[in-house]
């Protein structure tokens, strides 16, 4: 088994600082509810909110998608947020946008709860696979169509703790 470094810890850290500055500027000191998508976004979101200066509320949402040939293109909510987002600024934070199904469905779901605004953030985006186009407001890195692990992302439940993004070569 070999793991090749794809995006270093240093690059991730400096990009997150830039994203946090961008978010702070956009909200101009207003409160922000940051909603992280479980499981993969837990490390990204923890680092992101600690770089932000905006007043932050935080919660996680859990979603699983079924993408086989039987797929209805829907996701199941495995854990909902407790915080009331009506009239609030929301930033929905994903680890990686692949087909776009998860983030687009969560976007629709949260919009129904009438937030003041909703913005989408993801650390990684694989444009090659987009099937559900979404407009991403805060993007860490656009990547090739490769299976990546680390920094919250797993392979079969493992490697989430790696401080960098790697490519798993079996
Ligand atoms: P989407 O709904 O955009 O197709 O898929 C998003 C989810 O698929 C991510 O939250 C993540 O759980 C998983 N995923 C997509 N690509 C990768 C990848 O390269 N590595 C890992 N570990 N998970 C991925």
TrEMBL record:
Where does this protein act, in terms of pathway? Purine metabolism; IMP biosynthesis via salvage pathway; IMP from hypoxanthine: step 1/1
InterPro entries registered for this protein in UniProt? HGPRT, Hxn_phspho_trans, PRTase-like, PRTase_dom
The GO molecular function terms of this record are: glycosyltransferase activity
Q: Which SUPFAM superfamilies match?
A: PRTase-like
Instruction: Could you list this entry's UniProt keywords, alphabetically sorted.
Output: Cytoplasm, Glycosyltransferase, Magnesium, Metal-binding, Nucleotide-binding, Purine salvage, Transferase
Residue span, Phosphoribosyltransferase domain: 8-155
Required co-factors? Mg(2+)
- Chief localization class? cytoplasm
Tell me which EC number(s) this protein carries. Answer: 2.4.2.8
Return the similarity comment.
Belongs to the purine/pyrimidine phosphoribosyltransferase family.
Name this polypeptide is given:
Hypoxanthine phosphoribosyltransferase
Lineage of this protein's species? Bacteria, Pseudomonadati, Bdellovibrionota, Bacteriovoracia, Bacteriovoracales
């Amino acid at each position: 088994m070999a793991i090749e470094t794809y995006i270093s810890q240093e690059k991730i850290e400096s990009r997150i600082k830039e994203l946090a500055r961008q978010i702070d500027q956009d909200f101009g000191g207003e409160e922000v509810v940051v909603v992280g998508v479980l499981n993969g976004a837990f490390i990204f979101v923890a680092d992101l909110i600690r770089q932000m200066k905006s007043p932050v509320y935080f919660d996680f949402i859990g979603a699983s998608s079924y993408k086989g040939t039987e797929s209805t293109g829907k996701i199941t909510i495995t854990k909902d947020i407790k915080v009331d987002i009506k009239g609030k600024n929301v930033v929905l934070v994903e680890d990686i946008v692949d087909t776009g199904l998860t983030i687009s469905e969560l976007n629709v779901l949260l919009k129904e709860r009438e937030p003041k605004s909703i913005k989408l953030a993801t650390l990684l985006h694989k444009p090659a696979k987009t099937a559900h186009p979404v407009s991403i407001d805060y993007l860490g890195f656009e990547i090739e169509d490769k299976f990546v692990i680390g920094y919250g992302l797993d392979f079969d439940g493992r490697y989430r703790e790696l401080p960098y993004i790697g490519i798993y070569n079996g």
